[in-house]
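Thread: alpha-L-rhamnosidase, structure

OP (GT): Posting the sequence first so everyone is looking at the same thing. Length is 905 residues per the record. Can we get the structure tokens written out before standup tomorrow? I want them in the notebook alongside the other entries.
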Amino acid sequence: MSLIGILLLSFQKMVAQVLVQNPRCEMLTNPLGIDAVQPRLSWEIGSSARSVSQKAYQILVASSSEQLARNEGDLWNSEKVNSSATVHIKYGGEKLASRMRCFWKVKTWTSAGESEWSAPQLWTMGLLYYKDWPKGWIGFDQAFPWDNMKTDSRLSARYFRKEFQTTKAISYATASVIGLGLYELYINGKKVGEDVLAPSPTDYTKNVKYNTYDVTSYLQNGKNAVGTVLGNGRFFAMRQNEKPYKIKTFGFPKMLMNINIVYSDGSTANIDTDGSWKGTADGPIRTNNEYDGEEYDATKEAMGWNKVGFDDSKWLKAEFVQEPTGRIEAQMNENIRVMNTLKPVSIKKLSGDRYILDMGQNMVGWLQIKVKASKGKQIKLRFAESLQANGELFTANLRNAKCTDLYTAKGEGTETWEPTFVYRGFRYVELSGYAYQPSTGDFIGKMIYDNIKTVGTFETSDALTNQIFKNAWWGIAGNYKGIPIDCPQRNERMPWLGDRGAVAYSESFVFDNGRFYAKWLQDIRNSQKEDGAIPDVAPAFWRYYSDNMTWPGAMLLVTEMLYKQTGDLQAVQDNYPAMKKWLSYMQDRYMKDYILTKDSYGDWCMPPITIEFGRGKSADKKYPSELISTAYYYHFTQLMMQFAKAIGREDDVAAYQQLGDQIKTAFNQKYYNDKGYYASNALTDNIIPLYFGMVPKDSVKQVFSNITYTIEVTNKEHLSNGLVGIQWLMRCLNDNGRPDLAYTIATQKTYPGWGYMVENGATTIWELWNGNTADPKMNSQNHVMMLGDLLIWYYENVAGIKSDGEAFRKIIMKPEMINGLDKVNASYKSIYGLIKSDYTKTVSQFKWNITVPPNTTATLYIPANKRNEVSESRNIGDIKFVKMDNGKAIYEVGSGDYSFVVEKK
């Protein structure tokens, strides 16, 4: 791990090297333009010593770096606080004002001694009040003659510019910008920042997000030029005239911006959007539509349009336009960036001037091209996830999304181009319009997703397991787009709530997705109706309010994930009223005799009985299930009890306890069969009540026996779950003593299963278990919903990295010993630091290297028959033997690196 910006700490008694590292505000490093009036501060402690724990801390926040260097906290001096807390510490100092710069640092007292101060960090406040913003939004509230306002929404990009003068030496400058639907910002010809497709999408009638950039280095003495390009994004809605009863529309692209300059003498200047700006829609981006692609005419380029001295006399005067009705908010989640690049693996000629480019990986993003062509020559790029048997693109599963880019050359030697305001999921590209055979070196695939860190690694001795994990990584990352979209290729790309129930929890072991999902929970809250109803898609770009438990219930499951994985109590506090209101709505409207009678989807997309049985058939069929809806309502009462306890709502704890008991009783009376199964004995119908704790104690073994019989005998060691059941399958099997059966399912190469996808060429996760034979109408080859709890099982049970309570302050490390899996090496960067579990086993020996981060403890379950079989390389620090239990030697340890060996005797 890089220690850039991390200060080595010294102690009065130098017993160890300890770091206070990665100080963060609102869990971001050096955040700019936040609008939280009580930001939360966090830090990590790094140490090579064992059993390091924090005893106290002190935080200083100053209004200048000079004051902070003198240890003067004029904004806040927390003084010494006797506490072990290192995360989510609320700022408690002076009132913070718009644009304020806040410099901070922290020192700690640990079991190893007193540290020096950490390296200083900075956050800046955003524009906290409506009046801080300029008076007017600018744009063009009209289509131009070359635009098309029919169903395919062909609207050209808008270009705006302004020149201004700086009069003194600049101390620092920031730009706060809202460009809807998408924007790129330039100052003096240079693109500001590395973000693409910014800002994150929202329901713009509810809220709009702004971004803030440090633009000090972009400005120059004297004359300056600022330019912006506005794309359509979700604001100028795709297919907006196709189904007006379904699709929410917002208007034409528009922008609001403030550049705030602070001179060295303390005076300030503001460059705002106003009537002095000039604009045009007659630029090179002729259309940009997320479904259909981008058309770029290089002959329309206006060289130097975003630099000083450009002649904009033929441009139009920017128009003041109506502002969106949503409230203005700082964007606290990360923007999208180009996060990876890929080189094509092959190029093959088709008939005529067409070629097929293979990227070797189903990816999400776009293609950068280099081309030589005469002026006006058009190069067409068509994208798809797979090929037909004859080598042509397979586009049937795109529905009516064109997924096509069109580049018109300017005829000036080698030209390099990539789109600006579109993306798609693809592995293959059909190229046409070339007068020569292009080579693979002419193309670069650019993978884009939200700029969030990969925090988990997972590798085993089983190659198939490793490939499934890799496929999961590519699928999860590719579908982060400021919102969790279902798929990146067809004419949908919507944030369906049902897709991310337990999958968000799975994702959290691989990606630092806390801020991403906190933002999405806000989108869900904003979409809630006054009566309490929550939609199936949020933000509610589609007006789908079907009322069911499993889709809107993602709000509770994601809140649980944030609290459990990151300790974010604020997520519980923010979402509790909306969750309670929704549950009351569903109870009042649909609960009869404690059975929740309304469901919409059932166990969505269950696998057909055989691969051939599902050939050519559509999976878009709903089988509502009152059993599922009732079981989920019960489960949510249990979650609400946890939430209510966490935030001190004791009255609600008792109420949800009583309601849950009544639902459980009614559920068992209606659905439980004396033969030990529920309803029709379907796998999901048994797994859900068992995992949710609804099965009477004296019936648990019998119900689980029916589950294993269904899997082992009826299914011949395969799963048969849809979207709902797959969220609980692996944990249910593991927690009831059958990790071996979970592993068998997870590594099946025959239908249905994740391994079957790999065997049939998948490099991401399919939407359907029979994705190679189903009707293409609903058949994405890059969907995360069928991951279910697989990654949770990988980390918590196979690797043995599980939080005991909230945020991994206490860790349970209990890897399952599975025949055929001889090596597992996993890591997870928790909020307290890196956790590692790396073990190798043979018939006679078990070796386990672990890392426990400072300020945490772990309970270890080491496979051994006797205590004297276990040894540890250093045998120092807090290594406490607890007991032997069922073939496990249980130890408690503090932080540090440990190497255990079990020699079986």
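GT: Both are above now. Quick notes for whoever picks this up: The first strand starts at residue 7 and ends at 9. Confidence is low (pLDDT under 50) at residues 1-16.
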